[in-house]
Amino acid sequence: MPEMVFTKTFRAGEEIFRIGEPGSDAYIVQSGAVEVAAPSNGQKRVIARLERGEIFGEMSMIDDAPRSATVTALEDTELVVIHRDRIMQPMRSADPLMNMMLRVILTRFRDAQGQLIDLRAEQGGPDPTLDEVRDLVMHRITVERDMRKGLSDTEFELHYQPIVDLEAGHIVGFEALMRWRKSNGERPSPMEFIPLAEETGLIVELGRMALAQGLKDQAIMAEAFARIAPDLPAPFMSVNVSGLQFSQLSEIDMLADIIQASNVEPTFIKLEMTESLLIEEPEHAAQALERLKGLGVSIAIDDFGTGYSSLSYLHQFPFDTLKIDRAFVNNMDRSENSARIVNGIAQLGHALDMKIVAEGIEETKQVKGLLDLGCHYGQGYHMAKPAPLDETLALIENGTSLL
Ligand code: C2E
Ligand code: CA
Ligand code: CA
Q1: Which of 91, 164, 215, 303 is spaced 20 to 30 A from 72 at the CA atom?
Q2: CA 230 remoteness from chain centre
Q3: Residue environment code for 317-329, b if the CB has 16+ CB neighbours within 10 A, otherwise e
Q4: Residue 36: its pLDDT value, please?
Q5: Tell me: the pLDDT tens digits for 326-373?
Q6: Could you say which ligand is closest to the alpha carbon of residue 270?
Q7: How many angstroms separate the CA atoms of 296 and 267, rounded?
């Protein structure tokens, strides 16, 4: 059994621990001073200078993650070393809720600190102070609390954006997009709350809700659609699924249950996912995708071209649809390269027998350009912005042709 608490002296310039090392001790400065530094964009950044009475190394100790910074003695320094077990043993026998709280708070603090440091380095500004990191953590905790409350108060709802056949001009499907209408009237952007929902795990519940509600509304839309355009196939419903939802097979079962409990034919259901999970856990992703494909639903790969190098894995997974990120569509007429990329992606998709959807179409001329480049489906403000169910039904009643 190692000694639990002891004192250790470091000479000026001596490293106490280095970023990436496993952390088993926390330290209190008894005398002297240390510097905490982390690299950012390849450069060393000093995060803090700590003196008598201040603690460091506590995060790695409790959340069992590698050290997030390098600490060096600035002068001859005496430290009280607290071994991990000194904290962990009582914590294990303590209230599990306490235990969990501590871990969550520390993880958040670490993430917020890392993100702020990167952001400042990008902007060329000074390093964030501890107060700024704390403010960010507090902001996130508040948003998370509001989100949990919002979920039970049904502040979340879906808007629908049509996906259009660019040649024939009519609607072929809708994408369900989450909206948050807070009781105080605020409407935070999904770009803000979805990443937070992913960090906190709330996306799992939000994602179930999106699927259940999206399928319920699909049935209503399909009815309206059949009245207006009896000769066209019913519109499919495309729902976004986060990597976190995919990462547990039990959650895939939940999604499968929702699909089976809905009255929607699986051929009218599409699930959209991004590339990240495929890269991080390819075998697991394949298993999850096969399970969902087995139900008869289609799978779309979202934001294609923005993530990692995508080509190597594309044919290994059972995708039916490839969505070209709007950045390429946006730049198409300004940049020859963007146009080539769109064309390349479209050809690749066709070769693998996939449907291609171009995102973010804002101008008439992009429609023609995309058709020439081999994209047959499109989505964007030029055709329609995302709208709530009642407006979407009104849109359908007005005619299913949007071009
Ligand atoms: P996304 O899946 O790429 O969704 C398309 C986004 O592009 C939507 O943003 C849509 O409103 C926007 N958009 C559509 N047409 C145009 C256009 O012509 N111009 C421009 N500038 N934008 C256009 P939104 O609704 O803000 O959603 C942002 C992201 O949040 C989504 O990007 C998706 O990643 C995520 N998200 C939204 N709802 C859900 C959800 O239910 N679950 C999950 N996991 N993620 C969601
Ligand atoms: Ca999407
Ligand atoms: Ca997208």
Answers
A1: 91
A2: 38
A3: bebbbbbbbbebb
A4: 92
A5: 999 988 888 888 888 888 889 988 988 999 999 999 999 999 999 998
A6: 2
A7: 6
Half-sphere exposure of 358 (CA within 13 A, CB side): 36
Examine the pLDDT at 170 and tell me if it is beyond 80. yes
Q: Which tokens go with 164?
A: 């259009």
Q: Give yes or no for a contact between 170 and 401, defined as CB atoms under 8 angstroms apart.
A: yes
Residue to substitute in 240, 363, 366 for testing ligand 1 pocket (most ligand atoms within 8 angstroms of CB): 240
- Measure 149 CA to ligand 2 centroid, in angstroms: 25
Tell me the C-alpha distance between 365 and 340, whole Å. 16
CA atoms within 13 A on the CB side of 335: 10
**Cβ < 6 A, ligand 1 pocket:** 161, 177-178, 189-191, 194, 203, 207, 210, 240, 242, 302-303, 326, 359-362, 379-381, 386
The two three-digit tokens of residue 311, written as one number: 């080509």
Phi, psi of 386 (to 5 degrees): -60, 140
Work out the pLDDT band at 62, boundaries 50, 70, 90: low
